[in-house]
């Protein structure tokens, strides 16, 4: 503008700062704000709001609060948008007391909280496990009325995991009236569908009314809205017409999209939404080949572009060659407390054995699998140092558990594997020892789950859809305790899914301090010193589409535990011996479930 002899004013700066906010460039936004006095341009509330929103989106709550405090000195009056940005920033930073304090100050400042304000306040209460306070805010917002959308109340009930059937039913009765009387906006329809699935609703007539409004409008839905709509349908009962229409719309967008025109923030959001849509379609059983092929192409190209941007040397190599190829050692099951070991090393992806006591990636323990990966690969591969991409890890494994973990060396490999994971193409097989004699006829556990912070995962009729498949392979005893040895395959990968699911059906895993009573946990210590859960098999494809299978016997500590149990029958004895020696490992689907007269066994125990 100076070269064109045009003088920037507050509108110019506000527009530039808003652009930085939408692109996730909070440093540039604050830099522009700081340059305004020198340019003799006075910031106004729009300028400050744009800068505050940039800080909010990046999670810098301290900076958002600092801007709020600076506004009176600059003789700029904060408005609802300013407070909303500050409260949302506190929500992202987990600062619930500060967020609620800001909410309480709004009436004194002659400002009325709106739906965005309440959403942020309820979000921070949920994230901080202050559910009672969240409910208080919900009821207060209802009493005050105002311009709240029809989706607000169902969303809040789902966010706060309200279980009262009368309250939930009344909320959706209100929505049904709105659906019959007026056309709802795409965002409202998608949030209602999401809440419907989260709250475990089962009302085909209601959902059909929602579908009738949604399908003609699909072109107006954002990718995020399409994801919520598909997710809600997958979680509450599949509507085939809706899924086909959503997949056709998403496929069309994928065929036309050019991610080079996206900001980094917008690109990453688009990729996550697309992966989520793949997951919902696969979970519902209606993932079309056309959608999968289009998504795979776009997502892999995005990963390859990231590799080029990071200058990874490995991406220019032929598929058969690798930089820094690791020595593939045969994992030693007799060293369960040793260091992680590389089991399979491919040019752009690898499988690592995680011993018990190690965390895949986080801050829960000093023993981090991500640190092992970084130390092993050095600086050859940028993704292993990128926390936003989980340091290349595709999935996690609970700290007390052992087993195989899949990781990517490049962004292209990471996103290729992400597509496989969300499309159900990666097999993750486990073996567990659990309490009680599980009925061999039990083949699936499909309880929904939800969790907050460090609290145990809750399995039941509300939350995220989850699916655990199982085969009871042996019944045994340890002293007077009945036990089952079970092979497991997960169709979804929720936090503590296996442990919470088996606890939900009355068969918690052995030596599990989170999902059993303290007395049971202490008693289990005589049999096993840690949670008996081991991921023994991974199956996936490489970039060329070649199948790979990796298997790992149970470590020595679990082998010793199996030697301490007494089998209840000949088939169980053979199976326990096979697991205990590591011979005859195979895919979950190839195991034969236990065959027995379960009624007679129950009579014998009585």
UniProtKB/TrEMBL annotation:
Q: Which Pfam families match?
A: PPR (PF01535), PPR_2 (PF13041), PseudoU_synth_2 (PF00849)
**Entry superkingdom:** Eukaryota
Which key words are in the record?
A: Repeat
Q: Where is the Pseudouridine synthase RsuA/RluA-like domain?
A: 350-504
- GO BP: pseudouridine synthesis
Record Gene3D superfamilies: Pseudouridine synthase, Tetratricopeptide repeat domain
Q: Which GO terms describe its molecular function?
A: pseudouridine synthase activity; RNA binding
Q: Which InterPro entries match?
A: PPR_rpt, PsdUridine_synth_cat_dom_sf, PsdUridine_synth_RsuA/RluA, TPR-like_helical_dom_sf
Give me the PPR repeat coordinates as residue ranges.
9-43, 44-78, 79-113
The answer, when asked if Repeat is one of the entry's keywords, is: yes
Protein name as it appears in the record: Pseudouridine synthase RsuA/RluA-like domain-containing protein
- From what organism does this protein derive? Polarella glacialis
Query: What does UniProt list as this organism's lineage?
Result: Eukaryota, Sar, Alveolata, Dinophyceae, Suessiales
